[in-house]
């Protein structure tokens, strides 16, 4: 039996075949496609039908490779949703979370229920685009036609199999789940005028969803495909794929977003975690991901889009290395960097406003992005240690961003922690691990993580004798003195 991970992020999607061969986990990407949101009349949309077609195309390609039977797991980004009517049809175009409609919605909602109450109920960080805020801004006539509200991976699974569920790792990011009651929160649903029944029944990583209904796709020759529920939220899958075997580790899932945190058996909901805006997203097998969203590679993706499409990311890293040390402190977690019209201009404007040298060349800008992200990462590690009371010895960086040695070195130097980098395909790997556990080829997650550790080359970055710790304090002082938002 072959296992296939469908992993779709904000900028691309892929189908990856994975299995255990001679005691090692092997993965092979068989199909890749672009993803991205586009603007129409001031609103940003995903093309969800395109994503479904690409999954089916990838499956058909797997058949040409000789795959007759397989399991399949789907993970995507979180927080966006699809409304489905009585006939199983989509009610709306799927709006992307970087859309501007929810810019002020946290303020509106917290007039009805306080921030503290929402946080105590859900344990989820306040991000302007959580489903709670998006549904608040949804057109009433759309909600009236809605029989089922689904996250993106659940919708894709539904379109393939006809089976509708609410997978919990993705659902927790809606900020609508009550962490004590382990169900949708009635007060929050009431505020949105949504009924509990509009969400399909819960399902958990390792459950079976159903078989792909090949008759839905008469134009394609598809294998017999059993869809398994994995950590449908890509970050849940990425963290499942972290090759950590010891205690005291933190992770950084580095892609469009940088998600930095620890795995915990219980949610951590305190005044301090609310103050620093940490989240308790539900992970696979009853774990919680206590983490913070940092703006991440989105910044450099946008810089590249506006400045220098000729360079690939490796070249941008090279340019950064060649540039002189960064002279700017920039709080990239400021909301102004969430979706500016032009990222390069926004960075330069910030520097002008804060009376700092303005970076000009690709190398200067890239260096300034990577350095400031490394500082944000290490500040976050300090916060996690202080909030959780745990000591962190090492940071596991996984995902596409883990290939950036420059930022890995900087992070080790500033944080004074040992950094391990890889695998870059941790999300697909974590997705496959859950399928292997469901198929009883692996006993549990730790066995899976040990397998990852023995199967991929993981790079190690040790903190230098004299690190760049001072940068953190200088950054904090600078950012606070400019009265920018709390980093
Ligand atoms: C990463 C991610 C993050 C989530 C953001 C938006 O791809 O899933 O975990 O906060 O995208 O959904």
UniProtKB/TrEMBL annotation:
A Gene Ontology biological process term? rhamnose catabolic process
What sequence ranges are listed for the domain Carbohydrate kinase FGGY C-terminal? 250-438
> What are the GO cellular component annotations?
cytosol
Which species does the entry assign this protein to? Answer: Aeribacillus pallidus
**Single annotated GO MF:** ATP binding
Which gene name belongs to this protein? rhaB
Annotated catalytic residues: 234
InterPro entries from the entry? Answer: ATPase_NBD, Carb_kinase_FGGY, FGGY_C, FGGY_N, Rhamnulokinase
The protein here is known as Rhamnulokinase
Q: In which pathway does it act?
A: Carbohydrate degradation; L-rhamnose degradation; glycerone phosphate from L-rhamnose: step 2/3
Alphabetical list of Pfam families matching this protein: FGGY_C, FGGY_N
Q: What are the annotated disulfide bridges? A: 351-368
